[in-house]
Design a protein that fits this description.
An 8-stranded mixed beta sheet has the order 1-7-6-5-2-3-4-8, with helices on both faces. By secondary structure, the protein is α+β, with helices and mostly antiparallel strands. It is built from 12 helices and 8 strands. The chain folds into 2 domains: about 60 residues, 434 Repressor (Amino-terminal Domain), CATH 1.10.260; about 250 residues, no CATH class. About 30% of the residues are buried. α2 packs across α3, α5 runs parallel beside α8 and α10 runs antiparallel to α12. β5 and β6 form a beta hairpin.
């Protein structure tokens, strides 16, 4: 059984992954616990044990699961919960945490990101301001009081701060090796959302709706190019990518939810169901899910670098769905 000092040392190792690398770790602890620098150092070195109140403060401030500190029961898993609500800034807080995870992963060097994609992986949307703005609008719409008058979507509503943060996260995601499992339904969600807004007359104009469709086509072309080259890059700039840091698999199996696994010194799982996300570092839960995804990979087809026929079939199926929606909007006379 680990000693109290070992448990505390492990806790601080987890805590370091939640603090931006350009911040002083000791200063963060000192400020959070209202301690002198010397007192903070003694706790970091394990010379002074944290009190229960101090543990609570740090866990709340840096969104750390108690699984990172306590013994992890096989049958009891603690999750952090992130409802995607832009008005209460939980969306931004969630994005900042993901960004920090990727920065730490890149710094560690030996890490991989595994993405089981029921819907289009959120990071890809971040490259295209029009799509990113559309998704944020749609998320906010789902939380809005139905009796409240809804403003129509237009590109002037783009939140520049959120867009800048999203682009920054993509830049970090590009650096980290990722293994991704997609299916044809992976593209369905965003197309269904565009169709819903169109049918609900919530686009400011037909041109804006068509522009969003065109950006989805551009995104699909980008994914195809990444798969051909076998590495991630920012749209339109394939030079300088890390060879082999992108593996894309196709599966016919039904994907029930989105799951991101960060497999490195810190092992963390993000599970998204509908709009909200739960997160855990529980090691037993991680290993069970890792084994499950490993089995899913064996039943899937690798379509990056190899599998050109299967890759083209997958991309063409997705493009046909985009074309059908775009034609529907283009031919419609019902827009007011």
């Amino acid at each position: 059984m680990a000693s109290n000092q070992e448990i505390q040392n492990n806790f601080f190792q987890v805590l370091k992954t939640r603090i931006p690398t350009n911040h002083s770790f000791v200063d963060e602890i000192s400020e959070a616990l209202n301690l002198s620098t010397d007192s903070a150092y003694r706790r970091i070195r394990g010379e002074t044990l944290l009190t229960l109140q101090e543990i609570t403060v740090l866990c709340k401030k840096y969104s750390i699961s108690l699984d990172a500190l306590l013994g992890n029961s096989t049958y009891s898993v603690t999750f952090d919960y992130y409802p995607i609500d832009n008005e209460r800034l939980t969306l931004r807080k969630f994005l900042e945490m993901v960004s920090n995870d990727f920065k730490e992963a890149d710094k560690a060097g030996s890490v991989e990101v595994i993405y089981l994609a029921r819907d289009m992986p959120i990071f890809y949307l971040f490259q295209f301001p029009e799509i990113c703005a559309f998704k944020i609008y749609f998320w906010n719409l789902l939380y809005q009081d139905p009796n409240h008058k809804t403003e129509k979507f237009n590109l002037d509503q783009v939140d520049k701060n959120s867009i800048d943060l999203c682009r920054f996260i993509w830049d970090e995601f590009v650096k980290v090796p990722s293994i991704e499992i997609w299916g044809v339904p992976t593209f369905d969600a965003i197309l269904d959302e565009i169709d819903f807004l169109w049918e609900s007359l919530l686009f400011e104009s037909k041109d804006i709706a068509l522009r969003v469709c065109d950006k989805v086509t551009q995104l699909l072309s980008h994914v195809k190019k990444q798969a051909e080259l076998g590495y991630k890059f920012s749209d339109g700039n394939p030079v300088g990518g890390k060879p082999g840091n992108f593996q894309l698999y196709y599966t016919d199996f039904q994907l029930t939810h989105n799951k991101i696994m960060i497999n490195g010194d810190i092992k963390r799982i993000y599970i998204s169901q509908s709009l909200d996300t739960i997160i855990t570092t529980n090691p037993f839960f991680f290993e069970r899910n890792y084994a499950s995804i490993s089995n899913a990979l064996k039943r899937s087809t690798l379509i990056s670098r190899v599998g050109e026929k299967e890759r083209n079939q997958f991309i063409n199926k997705c493009q046909r769905k985009i074309d059908i929606l775009r034609n529907k909007i283009q031919m419609s006379d019902d827009f007011t």
